[in-house]
Amino acid sequence: MSAPNIETIVSLAKRRGFVFPSSEIYGGLGSAWDYGPLGVELCNNVKQAWWRWMVYERDDIEGLDSSIILNRLVWKYSGHEDTFSDPLVDCRECKTRLRADKLDDGKCPNCGSTKLTEPRPFNLMFQTHVGATAEDDPNALVYLRPETAQGIFINFANVLTTSRRKLPFGVAQIGKSFRNEVTPGNFIFRTREFEQMEMEYFVRPGEDERVHQEWIDSCFNWFTRLGISGDDLRLYEQPKEELAHYAKRTVDIQYRFFPERSEDERQWDELMGIANRTDFDLRTHSKKPEDADGKRLNPDSTEDLSYFDEATKERFYPYVIEPAAGVNRTVLSVLMDAYSEKTNDKGETRVILKLHPSLAPIKAAILPLAKNKPEIVALARSIKRSLQPALRAVYDDTGGIGKLYARQDEIGTPFCVTVDHQSLEDDAVTVRDRDTWEQERVKVEDLQEDLLKRLRT
Asked: What is the CATH number of the domain that holds 373?
């Protein structure tokens, strides 16, 4: 089948409890979403997979969880106060506000008018205030962080000292960020509140280009390990005019989020960015660096974030390689790539969500063939309880076996375990595979080990 569009995933997500519109009983809130029982499990599994790959499978990366609200000076010296903005225009006809850089033909997509105002910068950071007298104190202005990276940079010396790391090493973080997007939309693709998975990898200047390419290749392979088809992924080299002010080079991993668009280039958008940020961040947050005229770059800093190499007796500012991905977009790409349809022997079309087993919200569903038979129900519930510590399992008897299978296929459960009349005699159950619909008889005493083995393959 052809790739699903986002609207198909929106319908599935709400119907089956992955994602709900936020504040829906009060009319909702634009581009705000709540993750339901299955959605929160899927998000957690994505984050756990990233953390396991980034931190546990390597020996050169530490973890961090920095504050969402930081000193305003962090955003001053990072450049966000002056440069973190989108070009904003207004349609003079329908008064819609639009991002100028997203208008391919200079028309308002809402009414078709070409009568637009001149572009002006719109800062994307959310403002708030801290303190009991915040409303009367101009110094109480702070921002909700628009990225997690700066929390890592300002803690560089803390991590270096406490972990006794030597270059090269990285610091990973997963956390919420906030951007007051001019035109959010496309479900969870672009939202004002989102979760990031970012890592800053610190290297010696001169080694940055080689290490950058290594991370580009590694990140691409990680997405394919999640089960995303390589045909739906591509690398995009940002041209110089698109680079952020701090970047030497940035390569995006793009996913085919919009297969319904006829123009091939418009089908793709960013899934992850891998940037070479040079030594920009550590320099601008340090008290010592000077510009070409000898003027201090940061008179407000109390810390020098340079690195001293004991072996060479050199002091310098490390370069930084930054792989950064959104949890939300990763979840969306996983759902889109896993979506499939299959026709059964009755001619009925069934949705099968072929999620990678490690990401599936539920690993096994325990289904009694006869819910009016107390012995079968008791055995099924006992099996569910025995599996739960080792893997996420559910018990369901709210329909006929065919409907129960279909429901679990649609939410991506890899295995259904059916308890029937014969189970009471041979102490065995039927294990059904989500993708092949093949069934196999397994002893109850061997079931947990059998399922864990299947989940690992």
From this structure: 3.40.50.800
Token pair belonging to 417: 């375990």
Are 40 and 19 in contact by the 8 Å Cβ rule? The answer is no
Taking residues 257-268, report their average pLDDT. Answer: 87
CA-CA distance, 238 to 316, in Å (whole number)? 28
Residues 230 and 214 sit within 8 Å (Cβ to Cβ): no
Residue 33: how many CB atoms within 10 A of its CB? Answer: 22
Q: Is the domain of 191 the same as that of 236?
A: yes
Q: How many alpha carbons fall within 13 Å on the CB side of residue 115?
A: 6
pLDDT tens-place string over residues 52-69:
999 999 999 999 999 999
* DSSP reduced 3-state for 96: coil
84, 143 Cβ separation under 8 angstroms: no
CB 172 within 8 A of CB 54: yes
DSSP 115-172: -BPPPEEEE-PPEEE-STTGGG-GGGEEEB-S-SHHHHHTTHHHHHHHHT--SSEEEE
pLDDT per residue over 74-91, tens digit each?
999 998 988 877 788 889
Other residues' Cβ atoms within 10 Å of the Cβ of residue 202:
26
Summary count for the chain: helices (H), strands (E): 13, 23
User: Which tokens go with 9?
Assistant: 């995933």
- When the pLDDT of each residue in the chain is averaged and rounded to a whole number, the result is 92
User: Which pTM does this prediction carry?
Assistant: 0.91
Report the Cα 121 to chain-centroid distance in Å.
27
In a domain, 345, yes or no: no
Same domain as 420, residue 308: no
CATH number at residue 232: 3.30.930.10
DSSP label at residue 159:
H
Lookup: tokens for 404? 């129960």
Q: At which residue do the structure tokens 């756990």 appear?
A: 48
DSSP string, 408-435: HHHHT-SEEEEE-TTHHHHSEEEEEETT
User: Do both 159 and 231 map to the same domain?
Assistant: yes
Distance, CA of 151 to CA of 245 (rounded, Å):
19
Domain shared by 156 and 90, yes or no: no
Angle at 195 between CA 154 and CA 208, to 5 degrees: 50
431 and 284 share a domain?
Answer: no
Count of domains observed in the chain: 3
| Tokens found for residue 133 | 């007298």
Judgement on whether residues 221 and 74 belong to the same structural domain of the protein: yes
Residue type, 386: S
Reported as a pLDDT band with limits 50, 70 and 90, residue 133 is low
